[in-house]
Amino acid sequence: MFTMRISFLFILISACFAERQYEEEEAEEQSVSPSSLLQMSTKGECKRSGWGCNSGDCCQDFFCDTTQAPKNPEYSGVCKTQTRRGNQNQRQQCKRVGWGCNEGDCCDGFFCDTTRKSKTPDVFSGVCRKGEQAQEENVDGGDGGDVHRPDGSQRHCRPDGGAGTHNRVRQEILSMPKEKWLKVKKAWRDFQASGKYDFFSEDHAKHYDAPTKDHGGAEGFLPYHRRTMHKLEMGLQVAGNDCDIALPYWNWGLNAGPEARRQIFSDVYMGGTSGCIEGGLPGGWHYPANTETFPESFLNQMREKTQKKLMDDQNSCVSRTVKDKPNFDHYQQLMILVENSEGDYMHFCGEIERAHNALHGYIGGNMAARVDKHSPSDPMFYIHHNFIDSIWFTWQLTFPDHASDCQDKKGKPCRDDLQPWVGELNEEDACIYLPVSTDFLDDNRATCLSFEPPADEGACAKLERQIQNGECSVEDLQNMPCIDSKMCAFDEDAQEQASAEFTGGELSAEDKAAFDAIKDEIKCKSMRTGSEEEEAKCMSCDYVCGQVG
How confident is residue 80, by pLDDT bands cut at 50, 70 and 90? Predict the structure, then answer.
């Protein structure tokens, strides 16, 4: 009997302590102490049960019940007691801070924040928080109606109050308005400073081996990288609090000349070409940015594979070893690969991955094999892969009947987690429907992605727009004269070597055979001396498509 009394007393004290702790936690959320709440109620600064009320009038533990008509028409409801505890079989009438919720579950003065995941996401869509839903943070957008704020939720940056489709238009980095780029740059640096950017390098390294192999000729190469870019883009929009932020792409196939090289590797854009990068977007960055966030096993693995001590600042910096001259395909050659694929997804995917490898080797350093498979640690990774994504986008527009294709050579479809990122072609608006994020895959028309050709004037920009819009046939592209200059000379051996540097070893016999086949496909039929602009773009800009045939 004595033991039972002790147990009962212990339970009673524990319950009292838990109740007191609960009240203190709520008081902290409200930024007032329990004693001040009592003083407020006794002074009449808030209202209790039976008083007429409007939203926010009622005291702690009361809510304004708008279903009950008040005697005074100036009020919208009557204060009533909120049941917070009760017996074990009694459920609370409304929910407060920290409770999982759906729309309408939270008490008066609280709202269901769908940007925060509950512990049971299959049951509840968010978590109750103090205050009113910040509808005023929506902005008047050009997509029509109010655009929901950039908050990472299911309604992130979507028009019509978060129910419409957000049009994401990506621009070429050297052609987009500089002030727009500077907004992207600031948001990216803020995002990296928060420690969130390291995730992308760590995640990328997980996609080289089964069951999530998305490199080395795998069918998931294109949708995996589209997914990770979409995720980064959302992170930048949240960091910059700006729905107009879009991830830029670098059309290295048209910007091989010395002036373009000087621009892209300047402090305004991506920083230097050799050693630790001290200027530009990744100026002063290190990888890992914070070694305390990474398991020791991971750091040891990185040290072993790179034979460097990542704890040492000199070795952990973002680094490059950019080659003196380009060793990658020019734009017209890449478009030949698109046309010659004839709608065969795996043929196109394999060839564009091989072409992409050479650019990694051209940049070198973190973009090659310096930090093993963690190449996203250099943000050059994303403006490069975004260009590859733009070529896939062009392929999808060119072969609309195959736009949703994603399967291996035997016809096996891409993994289920990648299928949503193949997208659905919207031919009328020339964009690709995609989900808003990996957390909300049910609505696959939440965003629509497109790539804007350069807005520059002149013959080169006009021809580029023709090529990107699919107005040049494969015969046009093959008959277009190549520019005879040192910077535009294509070195197949150097391309193979750069690809090997990226993949971390000798090319396989299959890759060598594929490179030989690509050489024949894209070989120049004629050469000519070009103007200064043509040498910068490595393209015969006075060529007119549509005259062959």
Answer: confident
Quick check: pTM over 0.90? no
Token output for 123: 């049951």
The verdict on whether omega for the bond into residue 211 sits within 30 degrees of 0, i.e. cis, is yes
Backbone angles phi, psi at 112, to 5 degrees: -85, 105
Q: What is the pLDDT of residues 373-395, one digit of tens each?
A: 899 999 999 999 999 999 999 99
- The dihedrals phi and psi of 128, each to the nearest 5 degrees, come to -65, 135
Q: What are phi and psi of 407, to 5 degrees?
A: -150, 160
Together in a domain, 287 and 344:
yes
What pLDDT digit, counting tens, does each position of 130-148 carry? 776 544 344 444 444 589 9
Helices 34-43 and 2-30: angle between axes, nearest 10 degrees:
70
Q: Which two tokens stand for residue 384?
A: 């490069």
Mark 33-62 as b/e (b = at least 16 C-beta within 10 Å).
eeeebeeebeeeebbbeebbbeeebbbbbb
CB 50 within 8 A of CB 78: yes
CA-wise closest residue to 171 among 330, 329, 355, 387: 387
Are residues 523 and 448 located together in one domain of the fold?
yes
Residues 24 and 36 both lie in one domain: no
pLDDT at 545 over 60: yes
96 domain residue, yes or no: no
